Amino acid sequence: MKPEPIPPIIRVEPSRGWVSLKLGELWNYRELLYFLTWRDVKVKYKQTLLGVAWAIIQPFFTMVVFTLFFGKLAKMPSDGIPYPIFSFTALVPWTFFSNALSQASNSLVGSANLIKRVYFPRLAIPLASVLTGAVDFFFAFAVLIGMMLYFGIVPTVNILWLPLLLSLVVVISLGVSLWLSALNVQFRDVRYVIPFLTQVWLFATPIVYPSSLLKEPWRIIYGLNPMAGVVEGFRWALLGAKTAPGPMILVSAAAACLVLVSGALYFRRMEKTFADVV
Amino acid sequence: MNDIAIKAAGLGKKFRIGRSTSSYRTLRDTLSDGLLAPFRRVRGLIGGRASGSAGAREEIWALRDIGFEVEAGEAVGVIGRNGAGKSTLLKVLSRITEPTEGFAEIRGSVSSLLEVGTGFHLELTGRENIYLNGAILGMTRDHIRRRFDEIVDFAEVEKFIDTPVKHYSSGMYLRLAFAVAAHLDPDILIVDEVLAVGDARFHKKCLNKMQDAGQTGRTVIFVSHSMPAITRLCKRAILVEDGRMLADGPSHKVVNQYLNGGCETAASRDWPDPARAPGSDLARLRGVRVITEGGAVTDAVDVSQTFGIEMEFDVLEPRNVLMPYHHVFNQQHIEIFDAHDTDAAWRGRPRPRGRYRSTVWIPGNLLAEGTLFISSGLTRTDAAASRPEFHEQDVISIQVVENIDNERSARGDWSRDMGGVVRPLFRWDTRFIPYSMQVCSL
Asked: Do B283 and B387 lie in a common domain?
């Protein structure tokens, strides 16, 4: 026998009350997280004709439609920015968010077989689903850069805030996904709610219109929809939109963190019943 | 190595089976439950029910009061009928589901194989699935990379390693799945019925691998419906019924108890009190037991081992010609053979009073695996005896077991269950006639 440190003792017992998040354990399983994400990415566009092109087609054509109907016909204001890029800049984070929602909310139910057979931190499943969208995001982002070149828009120094804004999108997506995926295990109604929810949320977020339509302090309160802050943040950081989101984005960030923490706690609390219920 | 690897105490798991039609709930159920609960409670109180619980939701204990300790390096079999709680026990031990009460302490890394190929994705290639499945089972990427060639070798799928597994034959798929699982190196391995994969040759390979696991100091918990596999791989077994532990002991004894439905027939039987001993005025039975060639009393013998059935009896009246005999049945109560005493020393000779001990030697490589029930008796052969002096039905039982790598057995390279009530080791001859020779002789 090789000289080994005393192996850790795992204690299997009923958990009581609110449980800890056990993030350390999730870290130990980071390779599993990597492989689950890698699997989803690999499988996503297998046996599709256009493959990864879908990552671009989806937001791009939405932008075309929005530009036609809202930009040209409805003459929606766009803070002095050309409407196509005004809406596309918002659609890039939004597509990430809405895809994460639809993928992740079904992820636990879709992995029922795994959950019933193997132990691992269940958080890895929705987390992998959310991260899978990152690949699509980067393709769409490349198109965004191309459009910025086309419209001759030079980003300001505000672009330094972009990483923070990106992590904010991930925080929101993950938070909402944790809630929905755990709820979906208990209540299969969730999957019928998702398309409706994303549609309503799309129009509740300043994607086809600017948030500057609202007067302060309503605009700040609007930040309670965390995606509102993100979308305006993207426009501000990349396009140099004059209406700096300022306090609005702080409200959004706070709301996002609240969703994530509550989602994670709820998830952990329901986790122990997953194998029995799913 | 007397470290305790697993210690379980008072483990219990409760399930609610009120809504057996759907395991998950719809929002409507919850909402209507929540809204109607007060009314139901009122109705319940009016109806005279003390506790107005919302609906008669039945609870069942899938497991209750499970307590045992497993030493590091021990292989323990878990047996029981379908639905007895075996799988739930494994799920609790491997942390897939939480117990409702009690606790278990597990020392060391655990891998559970409740199914082969968990998490395999049909669209991915064999290579990709090895990494994915390995990660799911808890291997690190380094570990998989190091054992990759071994895994592919074991599964015998070299040629198809970069083909999506959806194009695999079911045999290849299972082989690959088992191969990944077989190359885990946990301290504790929890296995549920995964041995039934692949063809005979691969099956043997799997069993050997499992046995290796046991021999390299790994703790193994193994659930199976194959009693021969249990007795082959595990020295100790636990019998679970209705969620409770019914027995815990040497596997052949526990298997015996399980197969005999609880009414255990011992491997040896003695009547120390002559007044209670079965028999007539002429002779009395004093004991029956199974012994090894070395003379030790045993309750399990290997298929290839010679063993003796020993009968001890008192002759109370002299001048009678007596013949001891045994009838041997298997667990389906098919009579396999009768053994009549042919010992020349006493054949046709009247016996003086006294104690006799007759042993019949059953050669190795005669009987198949399984439980044997032995009925023993004594009869007069000098007179037209209407009935034996004594005849005890199913007086003892014994397990015939088989070690997996028993080179001397009639099993050959076949590792799954074999048919037949006997298993003689025959001589086989093979003459090879090349095709060219056949053509020439035409």
From this structure: yes
Q: Which of B127-136, B193-202, B208-217, B308-317 has the lowest mean pLDDT?
A: B193-202
pTM value surpassing 0.80:
no
- In a domain, residue A144? The reply is yes
Does one domain contain both B328 and B275?
yes
User: Do B22 and B124 belong to one domain?
Assistant: no
- For residue A67, what are the domain limits? 23-39+48-277
Burial tier of B435 (Cβ tally within 10 Å: 0-12, 13-18, 19+): exposed
Instruction: Name the domain count of chain B.
Output: 3
The residue in chain A having the minimum alpha-carbon distance to the alpha carbon of residue B87 is A117
| Pair type for strands B110-113 and B4-16 | unpaired
CB contact under 8 A, A12 and B98: yes
The verdict on B111 and B241 lying in the same domain is yes
Assess if residue A5 is contained within a domain.
no
**Strands B236-241 and B244-250, sheet pairing:** antiparallel
pLDDT digits (tens, 9 = 90+) for A184-200: 998 888 888 899 999 99
Owning domain of residue B212: 61-259
Please tell me the least confidently modeled range out of A6-10, A143-147, B331-335: A6-10
Q: What distances in angstroms separate CA B265 from CA B194, B234, B238, B257, B260, one per listed residue?
A: 31, 21, 18, 8, 8
Distance between A6 CA and the closest CA of chain B, angstroms = 8
* Residue A126: inside a domain: yes
Looking at the fold, whether B46 and B152 belong to one and the same domain comes out as no
- Torsion of the alpha carbons at A220, A221, A225 and A226, rounded to the nearest 10: 40
CB-CB under 8 Å, B115 with A120: no
Q: Give the model's confidence band at B299: pLDDT under 50 very low, under 70 low, under 90 confident, else very high.
A: confident
Residue B346 and residue B247 in one domain: no
Tell me the shortest Cα–Cα distance from A237 to chain B, in angstroms: 39
Q: What is the mean pLDDT of chain B?
A: 81
Domain boundary among B231, B259, B287: B259
Q: Do B15 and A272 touch (CB under 8 A)?
A: no
Provide the pLDDT for residue B98.
Answer: 87
The residues that bridge with A50 in the sheet, in sequence order, are none
Res A137: pLDDT: 92
